[in-house]
């Protein structure tokens, strides 16, 4: 009882002391305490807000429906978590606001009587303090929600509409979609020193893993997640599936079929019926090779994405860096010569007869006879020239044939037999030694291809501003020019190379060849390339590549397989162009030369900055 009386006495004493405090002082004290408590509440709420909520809001600013724009975080999906019932917060806010306003009105209405009674005044002040704490600490929840909804209404065009996501769920959908998808601000750069510190991102069930593929694709398209980071945040299989959705939008943005890569398998599969009798014999399986996509690469005012099949780490990322640098101003490329070759070896009874055959073939009237015989064997092939070379009794007839959109080896071989048959009429003792006499020259390093050309002879050039050289390539114009001269020009000359005045043209050529169904062995002559770098009068970098023997086609051979055809389709050059025969194959050659230029630029820059080894040790070693 004594303790109770003592406690009551203390409370009474405290209240009597409050009577000595003015109303203004007491209210100021309560307001200060209220603000401190509100600040603590807001700070703890900010720390405890999960990262998933931020991702959720960013990822799902989906485009509004045309007729009725409901405000939602995500499209209604069975995998999506239930949304909070925000309206309850609003209703409670309104109730608290009304109660606060009513208490204020009551107090001021009876101000005289309330201020003389300290107990009543204390109850009013405590009630107002509770209201202020609530308003400071929780009224922002409803406000933030409204802000997020308004932000969603201004979603960028590159994000996927509800109709688009529904259409993609249907396997028979074929509608082409063109979406504005600008280049990412940054691209994966293996030779950029800042990329060497690989960060490990912890997987969380409340973050990306719980989103569906379309939602994550929206994050990539919006720049919130880098394309090359997907494997770090998801399992590799799902990362590929998400990236396919991203690529659809990117292809559509440059005017290509959004579903061009539909037949490029991302799961192990191969239709062996397509292989039998066309591509391989005694088949026991197949070797899957990963395909990367670089770009967009601006060539002749068109933007393209280039597929590259390779197992060499850093190659795709490095070429992508070159594409980024070149595409600032864009590249120009042109085919200056187009003709596949075959050189039959024939033998005559004497060297004099061999010389007579050479002179006969060089007569324009006789060449017209050879041309007519050749072109009877083909619908698209056109014999352009016949160049005989004598070696004693042997004559090597180098026939040059325009082959349309086919690479043309079968076409020129068939036509060559018709030419031999005609020559046997004029020279009955002529003997065919070999349909290919190695002066073609096919799949071997040869000066004749370097000088005379074979397939498509392509020249490509680009100007890279000095600021881009510094920012993107991490070097200087003078350093990269000096490296190219001493390595690709002087070094290659000292090695006695034929057509090898470049850094690694074969890397890019071979990767694109494998992806698009070309003959990989023809990378030998197709990689003939001289890379020239010069500093301009404005201290920018001018670059060119000259490739005299790019042997490619878009019909026949490996281009008929679904995956390879899909890669050609992604570049807008699949199949033959009957309206303008040869245009698709030439487009492919232009893209290859421009991609080679991108790969050359990035590697030479890495050598100039001395970051090559460090890049490969970081990005090309399995952890």
Strands, total number: 11
Low-confidence stretches: 45-80, 142-189, 191-203
Beta-strand residue fraction = 5-15%
Helix-strand makeup class = alpha+beta
Sum up the overall morphology in one term.
elongated
Mean pLDDT: 80
First CA to last CA: what distance? 74 Å
Number of helices: 23
Explain what you see.
The chain is 49% helix and 13% strand. The chain is of the alpha+beta class. It is elongated. The N and C termini lie far apart (74 Å).
List the helices and strands and how they pair.
Blueprint: H1 2-19, H2 23-48, H3 51-59, H4 86-109, H5 111-115, H6 118-153, H7 162-168, H8 213-221, H9 230-233, H10 236-253, H11 272-275, E1 291-299, E2 302-309, H12 315-326, E3 331-342, E4 345-347, H13 351-362, H14 364-375, E5 382-391, E6 394-402, H15 409-426, E7 431-434, H16 447-452, E8 455-464, H17 466-471, H18 477-494, E9 500-501, H19 505-516, H20 523-526, E10 529-535, E11 541-550, H21 562-570, H22 583-609, H23 612-619
Parallel strand pairs: 9-10
Antiparallel strand pairs: 1-2, 3-6, 3-8, 4-6, 4-7, 5-6, 8-11, 10-11
Key features?
alpha+beta, 9-stranded mixed β-sheet, elongated
Compact summary:
The protein has 623 residues and is of the alpha+beta class. The chain has helices at residues 2-19, 23-48, 51-59, 86-109, 111-115, 118-153, 162-168, 213-221, 230-233, 236-253, 272-275, 315-326, 351-362, 364-375, 409-426, 447-452, 466-471, 477-494, 505-516, 523-526, 562-570, 583-609, 612-619, and strands spanning 291-299, 302-309, 331-342, 345-347, 382-391, 394-402, 431-434, 455-464, 500-501, 529-535, 541-550. Helix 8 (213-221) crosses helix 10 and helix 18 (477-494) crosses helix 22.
């Amino acid at each position: 009882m004594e303790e109770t009386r003592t406690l009551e006495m203390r409370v009474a004493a405290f209240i009597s002391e409050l009577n000595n405090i003015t109303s203004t002082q007491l209210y100021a004290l309560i307001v200060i305490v209220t603000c401190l408590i509100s600040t603590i509440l807001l700070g703890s709420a900010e720390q405890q807000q999960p990262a998933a909520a931020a991702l959720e809001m960013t990822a799902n600013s989906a485009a509004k429906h045309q007729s009725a724009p409901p405000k939602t975080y995500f499209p209604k999906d069975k995998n999506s978590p239930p949304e909070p019932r925000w309206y309850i917060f609003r209703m409670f806010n309104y109730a608290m606001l009304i109660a606060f306003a009513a208490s204020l009105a009551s107090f001021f209405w009876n101000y005289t009587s309330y201020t003389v009674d300290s107990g009543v005044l204390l109850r009013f002040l405590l009630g107002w303090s509770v209201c202020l704490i609530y308003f400071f600490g929780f009224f922002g929840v409803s406000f933030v929600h409204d802000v997020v909804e308004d932000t969603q209404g201004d979603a960028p065009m590159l994000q996927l509409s509800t109709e688009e996501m529904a259409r993609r769920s249907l396997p028979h959908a074929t509608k082409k979609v063109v979406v504005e998808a600008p280049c990412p601000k940054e691209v994966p750069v293996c030779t950029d020193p800042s990329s060497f510190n690989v960060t490990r991102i912890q997987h969380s069930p409340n973050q990306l893993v719980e989103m569906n593929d379309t939602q994550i694709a929206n994050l990539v398209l919006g720049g919130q997640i880098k394309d090359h980071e997907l494997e770090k945040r998801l399992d590799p299989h799902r990362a590929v599936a998400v990236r396919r959705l991203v690529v659809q939008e990117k292809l559509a943005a440059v005017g290509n079929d959004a579903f061009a890569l539909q037949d490029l398998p991302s799961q192990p599969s191969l239709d062996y019926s397509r292989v039998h009798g066309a591509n391989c014999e005694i088949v026991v399986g197949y070797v899957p090779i990963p395909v990367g996509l670089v770009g967009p690469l601006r060539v002749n005012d068109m933007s393209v994405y280039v597929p590259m099949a390779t197992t060499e780490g850093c190659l795709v990322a490095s070429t992508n860096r070159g594409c980024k640098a070149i595409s600032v101003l864009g590249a120009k490329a042109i085919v200056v010569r187009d003709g596949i070759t075959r050189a039959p070896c024939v033998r005559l009874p004497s060297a004099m007869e061999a010389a007579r055959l050479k002179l006969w073939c060089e007569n324009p009237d006789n060449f017209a006879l050879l041309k007519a015989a050749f072109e009877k064997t083909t619908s698209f092939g056109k014999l352009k020239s016949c160049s005989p070379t004598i070696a004693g009794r042997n004559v090597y007839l180098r026939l040059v044939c325009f082959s349309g959109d086919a690479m043309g080896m079968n076409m020129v071989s068939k036509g060559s037999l018709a030419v031999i048959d005609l020559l046997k009429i004029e020279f009955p003792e002529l003997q065919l030694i070999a349909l290919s006499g190695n002066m073609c020259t096919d799949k071997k390093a040869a000066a004749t291809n370097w000088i005379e050309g074979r397939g498509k002879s392509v020249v490509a050039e680009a100007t890279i501003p000095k600021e881009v050289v510094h920012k993107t390539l991490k070097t200087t114009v003078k350093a990269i020019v000096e490296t190219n001269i001493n390595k690709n020009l002087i070094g290659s000359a000292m090695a006695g190379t034929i057509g090898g005045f470049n850094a690694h043209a074969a890397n890019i050529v071979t990767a694109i060849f494998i992806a698009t169904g070309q003959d990989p062995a023809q990378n030998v002559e197709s990689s003939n390339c001289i890379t020239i770098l010069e500093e301009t009068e404005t201290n920018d970098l001018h670059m060119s590549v000259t490739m005299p023997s790019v042997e490619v086609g878009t019909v026949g051979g490996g281009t008929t397989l679904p995956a390879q055809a899909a890669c050609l389709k992604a570049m807008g050059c699949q199949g033959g162009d009957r309206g303008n025969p040869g245009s698709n194959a030439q487009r492919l050659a232009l893209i290859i030369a421009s991609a080679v230029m991108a790969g050359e630029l990035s590697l030479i820059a890495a050598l100039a900055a001395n970051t090559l080894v460090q890049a490969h040790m970081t990005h090309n070693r399995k952890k």
